[in-house]
């Protein structure tokens, strides 16, 4: 190419975003446009632009080519094939843009494990069909708690952000599940998880609303470095006789690096609950309403399997109208697993109208004193701090506002409470229960046998 021609081309592409010629496989209504800054000039060694990189060393948004697809005309107009095409086109440095005010319906399962450096700018709504028959026959299955999902995200360097919505269209699923229990071994009515990553490194989700998941809202498996910031999660039923069930905000399995900040969760189950083998957890500025709390575990459920959760920092969390506030749970009894929960800090936690504001349970699940003594937990619980915990219980557990029950003879030490101001409408002074903990816990406490609950 002659230099003059080269410069002309480069300057032309500087002037405006250009639409690339469409190729044969381009779906109807889709388009690819080059970045405004897509000039070879901009990459000249002395250009000012050459250091523009995101936090993973990749191109920033405005340096990416942008792929758009047509929107759906109605809730049955499936654009999953278009969306998959767009992600393939945007992979390795591009961006898929789903526009504000538009709906994009996903009606087929999607394997998105091939990603490497991609942005999805979601300003519109990604909505799943509620074709229960289809999804129960076509999904991705995970043996862990018999989970299924609509799609799997995997690979590396994936950012999904914008002001849009991922809508699980959960109502029909909750209605259909009515009366069933997820832990019932005979249950075959599986419901999809709304957002799942597997074998992924570097996932960032921000700004979005994750709405009405049929089951867990998010689940991260074999994943490194997940960040959720400024996200709103809710699951709200319009059918008075069927509530959303098991719509947990955050779950994880074999994850290193899980960060959730500036997020609100309004669901009827766990707000944030890392599961086996989650390490380096950071939570700050989280609001949970009507939930089962911020809960480490349960872990140690499966015989012969080692599980652990370690290095968690949980700060400035508000928990309202829930079953639990700050909780840790490890299995005891015959035929369970082993492992540890270590180095967990809950700091500046405000709790209101919650049945069990603070719980440490090393005799999970409902293992009575006799059985817990006969089969103590083999999950060691060490170095757990509760600092500056305030608010009120619902009074459901009487005067008890914190219940710390370890297995007799198990390892349970380095448990420290400080600046605890939790009251109960059932009367004062409120009570802190502690059983079988080694060493001083920093506050006055009584054995369960003496509690007014
Ligand atoms: C995980 O992803 C990497 C590429 O990111 C791939 O090489 C590897 O095979 C994947 N592992 C599994 C178990 O899928
Ligand atoms: C609410 O859910 C129940 C249980 O599945 C179902 O029988 C009923 O038809 C639903 N009501 C509405 C208005 O959809
Ligand atoms: C604590 O989190 C709430 C959101 O739940 C936020 O509004 C508030 O600014 C945070 N406080 C601090 C000190 O960051
Ligand atoms: C909080 O949850 C309660 C029920 O658990 C609900 O009535 C209330 O509307 C929720 N508040 C907000 C702000 O979402
Ligand atoms: C947790 O990690 C250990 C290895 O340290 C592994 O043996 C175990 O299977 C993992 N647990 C789960 C539930 O994957
Ligand atoms: C405990 O966890 C924190 C993060 O919350 C981490 O900074 C610290 O290094 C961990 N301590 C140890 C001894 O691993
Ligand atoms: C639990 O603690 C005991 C006593 O310190 C130790 O022998 C055992 O190895 C620990 N188990 C795990 C899984 O860390
Ligand atoms: C205690 O936590 C509350 C939030 O629940 C916060 O507003 C307050 O500043 C904290 N107190 C101290 C002394 O840090
Ligand atoms: C404790 O639980 C075991 C096993 O479920 C049961 O057999 C036993 O009767 C219970 N003991 C008490 C005192 O409730
Ligand atoms: C404990 O909290 C109550 C409000 O729930 C407040 O009135 C009281 O001053 C607090 N006490 C301390 C010691 O901070």
Number of strand elements: 27
Give the cofactors and ligands: 2-acetamido-2-deoxy-beta-D-glucopyranose
Outline the biggest β-sheet.
19 strands, mixed
Radius of gyration: 25 Å
Might you state the CATH topology name?
Pectate Lyase C-like
Q: What's the structural domain tally? A: 1
Q: How helical, in percent, are the residues? A: under 10%
CATH C-level class: Mainly Beta
What is the annotated CATH architecture?
Answer: 3 Solenoid
Q: Count of helices?
A: 5
> Strand-residue fraction?
over 45%
Instruction: Report the structural category.
Output: mainly beta
How would you describe this structure to a colleague?
The structure is a single chain. The chain is 9% helix and 46% strand. It contains five helices and 27 strands. It has helices at residues 3-15, 80-90, 132-137, 171-177, 369-374; strands at 31-33, 66-68, 94-98, 103-106, 110-122, 125-128, 140-142, 147-149, 151-161, 165-167, 192-193, 195-206, 209-211, 218-229, 232-234, 250-266, 272-274, 278-289, 294-299, 306-320, 324-331, 338-354, 356-364, 378-393, 400-405, 412-423, 431-435. The strands form three sheets. The protein has a 19-stranded mixed beta sheet that branches. Strands 19-21-23-25-27 form a five-stranded parallel beta sheet, with no helix packed on it. The longest helix is centred in the N-terminal third of the chain and has 13 residues, at 3-15. The model is unreliable at 1-17 (pLDDT under 50). The structure holds 2-acetamido-2-deoxy-beta-D-glucopyranose (10 copies).
Give descriptors for this structure:
mainly beta, Pectate Lyase C-like, five-stranded parallel β-sheet, binds 2-acetamido-2-deoxy-beta-D-glucopyranose, Glyco_hydro_28, galacturan 1,4-alpha-galacturonidase activity
């Amino acid at each position: 190419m002659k230099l003059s021609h080269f410069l002309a081309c480069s300057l032309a592409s500087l002037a405006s975003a250009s639409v690339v010629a469409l190729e044969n496989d381009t779906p109807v209504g889709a388009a690819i446009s080059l970045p405004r800054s897509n000039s070879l000039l901009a990459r000249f060694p002395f250009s000012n632009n050459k250091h523009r990189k995101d936090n993973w060393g990749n191109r920033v948004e405005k340096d990416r080519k942008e792929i758009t697809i047509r929107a759906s005309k109605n809730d049955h107009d499936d654009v999953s094939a278009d969306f998959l095409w767009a992600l393939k086109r945007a992979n390795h440095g591009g961006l898929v843009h789903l526009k504000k005010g538009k709906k994009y319906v996903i009606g087929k399962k999607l394997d998105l494990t091939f990603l490497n450096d991609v942005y999805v700018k979601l300003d519109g709504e990604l909505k799943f069909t509620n074709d229960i028959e289809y999804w129960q026959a076509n999904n991705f299955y995970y043996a862990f708690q018999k989970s299924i999902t609509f799609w799997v995200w995997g690979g590396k360097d994936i950012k999904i952000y914008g002001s849009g919505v991922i809508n699980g269209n959960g109502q029909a699923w909750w209605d259909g599940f009515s009366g069933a229990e997820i832990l019932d071994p005979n249950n075959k009515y599986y419901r999809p998880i709304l957002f799942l990553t597997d074998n992924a490194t570097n996932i960032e989700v921000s700004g979005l609303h994750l709405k009405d998941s049929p089951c867990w809202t998010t689940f991260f498996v074999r994943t490194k470095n997940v960040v959720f910031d400024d996200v709103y999660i809710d699951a709200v039923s319009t059918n008075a006789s069927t509530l959303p069930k098991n719509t947990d905000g955050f779950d994880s399995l074999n994850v290193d690096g899980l960060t959730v900040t500036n997020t609100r969760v309004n669901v009827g189950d766990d707000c944030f609950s890392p599961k086996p083998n989650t390490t380096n957890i950071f939570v700050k500025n989280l609001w949970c309403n009507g939930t089962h709390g911020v809960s480490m575990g349960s872990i140690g459920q499966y015989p012969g399997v080692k599980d652990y959760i370690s290095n968690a920092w949980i700060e400035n969390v508000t928990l309202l109208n829930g079953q639990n506030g700050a909780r840790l749970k490890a299995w005891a009894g015959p035929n369970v697993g082993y492992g540890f929960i270590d180095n967990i800090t809950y700091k500046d936690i405000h709790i209101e109208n919650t049945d069990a504001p603070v719980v440490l349970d090393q005799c999970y699940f409902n293992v009575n004193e006799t059985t817990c003594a006969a089969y103590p937990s083999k999950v060691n619980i060490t170095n757990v701090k509760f600092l500056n915990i305030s608010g009120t219980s619902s009074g459901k557990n009487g005067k008890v506002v914190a219940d710390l029950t370890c297995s007799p003879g198990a390892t349970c030490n380095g448990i420290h409470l400080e600046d605890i101001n939790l009251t109960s409408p059932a009367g004062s002074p409120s009570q802190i229960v502690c059983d079988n903990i080694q060493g001083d816990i920093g506050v006055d406490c009584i054995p369960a046998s003496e509690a007014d609950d």
